[in-house]
Amino acid sequence: MRDVLLWPEPVEAAGTMGRPQARGRFGEYGGRYAPESLVEACREVDEAFREAWADPGFRGALARLLAVHAGRPTPLTPARRLSEALGVQLYLKREDLTHTGSHKINNVLGQALLATRMGRRRLIAETGAGQHGVATATAAALLGLEATVFMGERDIERQALNVFRMRMLGAEVIPVTTGSRTLKDATSEAMRHWVGATGDSHYCVGSVVGPDPYPWMVREFQRVIGDEARVQCAAELRTGVPDHVVACVGGGSNAAGTFAGFADTPARLVGVEAEGGAGAARGRLGVLHGCRSLFLQDDDGQITQAHSIAAGLDYPGVGPEHAHLRDLGRARYVTVTDDEAVGAAVRLARTEGIVPALESAHALAWVIRATGGGELPAGSTVLMTLSGRGDKDVSTLKELL
Ligand SMILES: *Cc1c(COP(=O)(O)O)cnc(C)c1O
User: Fold this and answer.
1) Mean pLDDT of all residues in the chain?
2) 93 CA distance to ligand 1 middle (Å)
3) Which of 214, 247, 276 is the last residue of a domain?
4) Which one of 7, 45, 306, 361 has the largest count of C-beta atoms within 10 Å of its C-beta?
5) If DSSP states are collapsed to H, E and C, what string results for 210-227?
6) CA 36 to centroid of ligand 1, rounded, Å
7) How does strand 89-94 pair with strand 381-386?
8) Cα(323)–Cα(277) distance, rounded to whole angstroms?
9) Is the distance from the beta carbon of residue 388 to the nearest atom of ligand 1 less than 6 Å?
10) Is the same domain home to 343 and 206?
11) What's the number of domains the chain is made of?
């Protein structure tokens, strides 16, 4: 594995959530650490994405897909009763109301459309709990592509319903039997498989991780969250821009997309990680799945297993741009326990009539704690991205409540 210098792009300002610097870097993070054949495949994706993103035809086609198929724009909902109890003004960006029930659809529709433009006929994806796999299978069916989804054997046992959903949507689900038989191994296997299939397949990465251009490209496909919210806040809030912008962080895609809409404002950006998956808050510099970033590691530098009640936060690292935003002090990263997240989920259900995904409940748990602890002063305005709906988590919650 080595980092090959194939970046033609001039250096741009970093830290403003613009394009990455030369060689796909966000500060000292990012890059393209991949075998030769994948470096070439990444270069092709990079070139195709740059062209497509500058093409109003592509932008228009994607905007239409997001509108007529995914249900965008999603509403900005004032959480009235909860706000009153907390003494702040909390607004929820409702990604839970998109088709398939989370923000993941924004990214997969973008990548599926790009794959079509590149003449690819198949999408390859990795999945942990199955959320990204289901979204990929959905986008593939919609655009007439095939989908091959790699999933750890243990996750297949734990997430039978999503496995069925993917197969129902026509995707092939391939069990991964190596290592811990979970997401990390499924990702390695998907990348290995792509090596032999770059000619006809696009690798659809599920978060702002992986080799350049994925962290940047996925953030741009998720930027729609932040861009919409920016306009909605301008119309809804007296101050125009919220004091705080909060989102949960697994790999970091819903947070990056949200932050991108507010990077040039005075809003304070807060990423909330699971206590057991705190790549940004507690990770160390390393290289995994094609990029340099912060990962949970043991003393020998081995990447360790993440643990969270929220499957989407169960990734041992964080996207390179978040690592950079942390270093710059532009965003801060905090952690929340499983118990706090479950408590927050129940509270949102009972005050606002919304059952959130356990991932999103982490973001809310921090808001609740921060209002009590004075980090969020009375009267603050808070925008929080509600990344997904809780239907997938009801059996987990049922065991606990
Ligand atoms: C996958 C997922 C996440 C975590 O992924 P990010 O890339 O960090 O956004 C968060 N919330 C939901 C509902 C998810 O499905």
Assistant:
1) 94
2) 14
3) 214
4) 361
5) CCCCHHHHHHHHHHHHHH
6) 30
7) parallel
8) 14
9) yes
10) no
11) 2
Per-residue pLDDT tens digits for 314-369? 889 999 999 999 999 999 999 999 999 999 999 999 999 999 999 999 999 999 99
Beta strands in 80-171 (DSSP E): 89-94, 122-127, 146-152
Question: Tokens in use for 143?
Answer: 């655009």
Q: Are residues 6 and 55 in the same domain?
A: no
The percent of residues above 90 in pLDDT, for the chain, comes to: 87
Choose the final residue of a domain: 164, 194, 214: 214
Q: Are residues 167 and 265 in the same domain?
A: no
Whether 265 and 175 share a structural domain: no
Token look-up 């992986």 returns: 210
> Is 251 near ligand 1, meaning CB less than 6 Å away?
yes
d(CA 20, CA 66): 25
Is the overall model pTM greater than 0.85, yes or no? Answer: yes
> Is the same domain home to 120 and 177?
yes
Residue with tokens 């999503």: 162
**CA–CA gap between residue 267 and residue 223 (Å, rounded):** 16
d(CA 10, ligand 1 centre) in Å = 31
Q: Same domain, yes or no, for 6 and 41?
A: no
Does 392 contact ligand 1 (Cβ within 6 A)? no
Active site residues: 104, 126, 387
Q: Is 387 in the pocket of ligand 1 (CB under 6 A)?
A: yes
Burial of 146: CB neighbours in 10 Å, binned 0-12, 13-18, 19+: middle
Share in percent of the chain as helix, strand, coil (round to 5): 50, 20, 30
State which residues form the domain around 367.
2-18+73-102+222-400
